[in-house]
Amino acid sequence: GAGVSQSPRYKVAKRGQDVALRCDPISGHVSLFWYQQALGQGPEFLTYFQNEAQLDKSGLPSDRFFAERPEGSVSTLKIQRTQQEDSAVYLCASSLGGNQETQYFGPGTRLLVL
Amino acid sequence: QQPVQSPQAVILREGEDAVINCSSSKALYSVHWYRQKHGEAPVFLMILLKGGEQKGHDKISASFNEKKQQSSLYLTASQLSYSGTYFCGTRTGGATNKLIFGTGTLLAVQP
Question: What is the pLDDT of residue A87?
């Protein structure tokens, strides 16, 4: 079956622009995660959804970052007034939920803020 | 605090073995191992739950010592396809299933 998909794969933004990153999780997966990965580093947790409920947003670096999953499937990560330090790969992962913890990652969106 | 992986990097010849370690300062509920190739998504390898279990498939196996808060990934008879960066992802329990990823280990397998 289809894996996690993300769009766009690449995004170049001018500093101060708003961007929206989309994630389509594996069908039927209850849990959805967003991670940020800087060059040469491991993924860092941003936020977590169970269905449409955002249960943990402790990793969002500032109030410029906002995520939603209104119908419990597709999720959007929005970054307002982008800054150069926002440049990174944004990874989305999904899992079945419950006792099924395994997270499957999408290909990521590579964001470059100029 | 992020788990520490060792070694940071290792170069192998095809057919050689390697061990990658992951050590956490916090009590762990589970450990997840991923391999990531340059420019690609992390690919899930295996998950270990607390209880000291050891798992494996093909020539890749892993162990989890919850008392020591450590996990090790064993790669035997390495193949070129094993090259990449290996990350351990740790879950410390609680309401969220978020993973805290380790510092990463770069593995290069040469012919």
Answer: 97
